[in-house]
Write a structure and sequence with these properties.
Layout: E1 3-10, E2 13-19, H1 30-47, E3 55-57, E4 61-70, E5 79-88, H2 93-116, H3 131-138, H4 145-152
Antiparallel strand pairs: 1-2, 1-5, 3-4, 4-5
Length: 153
């Protein structure tokens, strides 16, 4: 399974994301995608429950996500913080997400909170260095099979 993109969402915006492999030849509006993902998650949590949905599955890709909270300097209450990743759809995706992807997404939230809790989250440029953390956390999961083989030799 290949992770194509991963990131963090807050207030309907992408705080940080990593693009590892294209999902489309057309340019993608980052703000539009963030808004759509946030709307889908909010709908799912309202219609069902916050713990019942772990991913959305399409014909080619799967969007997995995990939610947490963060206390921002410019807020009086903790706010929802969502880690997501877009990956190729394959067989046994449920097991892969629950055993591998969800723990990685939870780790992203925890590391992000440990670095940025209590800061002004409106200043998104301060988070750009966190992309290195994304790359380290996902590691080989972002590589295609031929890229993994090259890395061995």
């Amino acid at each position: 399974m290949v992770i194509r993109e991963a990131g963090l969402l807050l207030r309907g915006f992408t705080l940080i994301n990593g693009f590892y492999h294209q999902t489309s030849d057309d340019p993608i509006d980052k703000d539009l995608r963030s808004g759509l993902l946030t709307a889908m998650l909010n709908f799912a949590e309202t219609a069902f429950s916050s713990e019942s949905i772990e991913y959305f599955e399409g014909k080619k890709y799967v969007v997995a996500f995990t939610s947490g909270t963060i206390m921002a300097e410019d807020s009086i209450d903790p706010e929802p913080l969502t880690a997501y990743c877009i990956l190729d759809k394959e067989k046994k995706i449920d097991k892969f997400i629950s055993k591998i992807i969800t723990p990685l997404l939870k780790r992203i939230i925890e590391e992000f909170k440990s670095l940025y809790e209590g800061r002004n989250c409106s200043e998104i440029s301060q988070f750009k260095d966190f992309k290195t953390n994304l790359d380290k956390i996902f590691g080989m999961q972002t590589k295609k099979l031929d890229e993994r083989v090259k890395g061995v030799f």
